[in-house]
Amino acid sequence: MAEWLAKSELPTSIVTDNGNEYTVDTDFRAWIRFQEIIEDKNILDNFKALFCARVVGLDINVFEYEPTDAVLNAMLAFFLCFREPKAPQKQTSDIAYRYKEDWGLICAAFRQQYGINLLTADMHWFYYKSLFDALTSDTMFVKIQQYRTADIAKLPKYERKEALRLKNYWKINDTKVVSQKTPQEIEKELLQKIKTGK
């Protein structure tokens, strides 16, 4: 059975390992910013917890009562919608998407597939994430993700030239990114980092 069937049933707080509950901002925009902070290699790790807490509306005084790792774990659990991250279908060194570069495409995809204007939408993060994960290849955003992560070597020879052209055209270049992963790999890696504190 679904964990939530109505908006009123959607969670509005995080719970730490100690069982303490803290209210957070559930708007999808806050959790997009959370993801951007976690992935940003220019932000020192010891500052990320504070920045993340601020963008999701968490009272920063929580760090006076809770270990930093416990708070990060709780925020990450909410970010992952209380689910274990999915195993990636394939290993890749290519970036599938990044909000900074692709926000316009994501807005267009939601408008096309769901008739939703993300610029004005009032939407819980869990609902947004469900819709985001269900976007289809009918949208340009998903097509571009496929171009970026295409395994050229496995394509028929007659398709490789065009596939490589599209891959290079839409490639996200970021020399500051040390490890470039699929969305599923990113989620799994983030969870591991929080658990190990590394």
UniProtKB/TrEMBL annotation:
Protein name, per record: Bacteriophage Gp15 protein
Any Pfam family the entry gives: Phage_Gp15
InterPro entries documented for this protein: Phage_A500_Gp15
